[in-house]
Amino acid sequence: xxxxxxxxxxxxxxxxxEQKRLEDLERRAGLANPGDRAAILAxxxxxxxxxxxxxxxxxxxxxxxxxxxxxxxxxxxxxxxxDLDGLFVEPAMQRRGFGRLxxxxxxxxxxxxxxxxxxxxxxxxxxxxYRACGxxxxxxxxxxxxxxxxxxxxx
Length: 155
What we know:
The protein is of the alpha+beta class. It has one domain: Aminopeptidase (3-Layer(aba) Sandwich). Helices cover 32% and strands 35% of the residues. The chain has helices at 19-32, 34-42, 51-55, 98-112, 127-132; strands spanning 4-6, 9-13, 59-64, 67-76, 82-89, 117-122, 136-143, 146-154. It has an eight-stranded mixed β-sheet with strand order 1-2-3-4-5-6-8-7. A hairpin with a 2-residue loop joins β7 and β8 (146-154). 31% of the residues are buried.
């Protein structure tokens, strides 16, 4: 997929050289969220942007005015669906629509690659955001950090 430009925002594939920078952003975003803070502090090893995902072109970075504002990761499922595997926005840049832009971009990538649904395992505190992005709850699941929502969005 080509670079996507929305006004002064650009969504592009991540470069391998950005791995550490993206992991630092993920950590900041997680620690800024009261619903995630305890798990991240107790298990700092959960912060990871795998090189395989970057190399496969499944990590997308959103820049605003040349500054990295957030990123999203995709994971392709054996059943033909696609998981929104990660979504992170710089705390100081949240509530500006960047998360939604990344979700929409990931949905477009998944559709172009033949998927009918974009799935997400979301924390209960993120339910409102995901519903606003067009996801519906199809169940719940247990994660190592507690219960989570299983949601999907038709694409």
